[in-house]
Amino acid sequence: MRRLLAVALLIAPMPAPAEEAPPAEPAARMSTLIVFGNDPCPKSSDDEIVVCARLPESDRYRIPGRFRHKEKDAVSDGWVNRAATLDMVSRAGLPDSCSPVGSGGQTGCYRQFRQKWAAEQRQAKKEAAEIP
């Protein structure tokens, strides 16, 4: 009996599948916004999808994370540091230059060592102050 029912189901004409609606086209634009606190998110329209991310009110005026701890490079370095570097490079052979060339070159080695040590101490103190 089961075989007869299975064969009858296979032989019976199958109804035509209902026509599917064509897929809806995606919206022309998509906007991603950040809203703070209880600010309302703008409503989406037929031609634009609006996606909102909600952050706490305390972050409204905060500098974004990608800009907070920017590494220094030659372009963003201050003019004072660039001038000091040029001064140091052009001092070879002059007194207090710590170079084997010239009459007073040897007197600057200890001064450079002390300046480097002081800069390392300032950097260590700055990093220790940043640790919560």
Task: Describe what this molecule looks like in 3D.
This protein has 132 residues and is α+β, with helices and mostly antiparallel strands. Among the domains are: 25-59, no CATH class; 91-132. The chain is built from four helices and two strands, in the order H-E-E-H-H-H. The protein has a two-stranded parallel sheet with strand order 1-2. The protein starts with a helix and ends with a helix.
Which features does this protein show?
132 residues, alpha+beta, two-stranded parallel sheet, 2 strands, 36% helix
Topology:
Layout: H1 2-11, E1 29-36, E2 48-55, H2 65-68, H3 79-89, H4 108-130
Parallel strand pairs: 1-2
Side by side, the strands of the main sheet go: 1-2
> How many helices in DSSP terms?
4
Total strand count, please? 2
- Low-confidence segments, ≥5 residues, pLDDT <50? none
The mean pLDDT is 76
Rounded to the nearest angstrom, the distance between the terminal CA atoms is: 80 Å
User: What class do helices, strands and sheet pairing give?
Assistant: alpha+beta
CA radius of gyration is: 36 Å
